[in-house]
Amino acid sequence: MSTRGVATRKNRYFDSVFLMAVARRLSEQRGVETAAAVMGSPANKKILIDMGFSGQALDLAGPNDLVVALEGDENAIRAVTENLEEWLARPKSELAGGMAISLDDALSRQASSNLAVISVPGQYAAREAHAALDHGMNVFLFSDHVAVEDEVALKRKAVDSGLIVMGPDCGTALIGGTGVGFANVVRRGPIGVVAASGTGLQEFSCLVHRSDSGISYGLGTGSRDLSDAVGGLSTLTAIDALEKDPETAVIGILSKPPGESTLRTITERLNRCSKPAVACFLGLVADSLDGDARFEVCATLDDAVAAALRLAGTDASEIPASPADQSAILAKGEAERMAAGQMYVRGLFAGGTFCYQTQQVMRRSEIIVHSNAPLDGMRFLGDPQTSIGNTLIDMGSDEFTVGTPHPMIDASQRAKRIAAEADDPQVAVLLLDFILGYNASADPAGDLANAISNAKQVASEAGRHLSVVASVCGTDGDPQDLAQQEQTLRDAGAIVFASNVRASSFVRDIVLQRAEVTG
Amino acid sequence: MATLRSLMEDGPIAINLGLVEFAKALRDQKKPAIHVDWSPPPPADQEMQDILDELL
User: Fold this and answer.
1) Total structural domains within chain A
2) Residues of chain B positioned with their CB less than 8 A from the CB of A480
């Protein structure tokens, strides 16, 4: 008979990635059925209570306290809780090269520090970022849930000091060939990028690399920078820097649509920029710029890459390895193999920008989709756990990541959702993104290969043909090996494309075919 | 005292607070990165800090 136990440690902080690894190792112990290791935030405690855990230790745990919850054989649980410290010890190799006890201690060891990389919980992030700026460092602020007034204060302070705050909610930067955060191994080249979206910058830089060109600098700004509340403070700083940078020949700007007045500010700034520029404001209605722009405005990341390459005058090869020219024929072939009633796409995305961009591809063909992050004109998916018709889900959004790592690191939620979608006889095609590079999962394709092949098999046994379409954002230099990742997906039965736009266009063709067949 | 320009010219010389993986990835790219063993301020300190922030 199984039992439940909860152990806590007061004022012991561990990050969610480390705790995920602890929970995974615990759950592999003989006799342990369920294991969770989280900080005792209200949201995490609610998840544990919903899982059936209870008791005084859990009730008293606060956000600064560690909570380990276990279900299974009584002896197994006792063995873990009596030796909890051993389970919480970090491998010594992780700390090779020195660890400081504070920002001041770190600065005393490395006085030339020029960048603070901050990923602490959001409520503490602004204070740490202010301290870094006060010490004369630029800031890469990965943390989210930072108040917008804190963001504005930080960015104003940075402007006054000739520094930049990349973030909050900044996933990626490329600083002269070095990736910060979630970044790919990309060669240096003539194209400089300013990006409000981490995955947008990753996709753009990978496609530039795969076209034999390169990136001078990719400066993140955080997802809210071009809102009217923030006014593009970091974007303007980054444009100034890239305009002065001798290595940069072309400047690309990637973002969701800016606020109205910020769009005017950015348009005016790019119009007087001495270097050619390309803007991709995903989801922007075309006439919002009123013909004012004296720079290229592109609807998709792929179009922006093509424009930037052309403006840079590079002799770039076309983005390789996609059966694009045969795409429509292949889509028709896939659609013809499907059973009556198979009509819809279910897109399960690790990258929020990909969820957004796929909706844009669908909107152009007047295909209505439901999403937890809907583009203008699309429908809001009230319960993100339950798909309706065509559904595209950003699985990196808050409702999926409270208490668990991002799907770029941990594929378990996507694996479960793939299985659920495969059981739905109305589903024609699954659309998935795979993001390689530093700090992503060591094997993103391998993490979901079984889920993909099982989904296809379940559908097949029910007399259906389920298409699985994937895009892989990565380069040949990435630690995960792009070619191997693509092959793993093909072996699992997926059709693989080199970009999200190409995969989305293929899926759109299938959906249109199925709508035609089923009337 | 760094600037954005010096970051771009010298490359990242980083101090990392939070996910240790970010420091490890920089070191994998042969860039200096010191990881800070960060933990949240105790709740009492937090309240006091908020009061000080208000006053200052």
Assistant:
1) 3
2) none
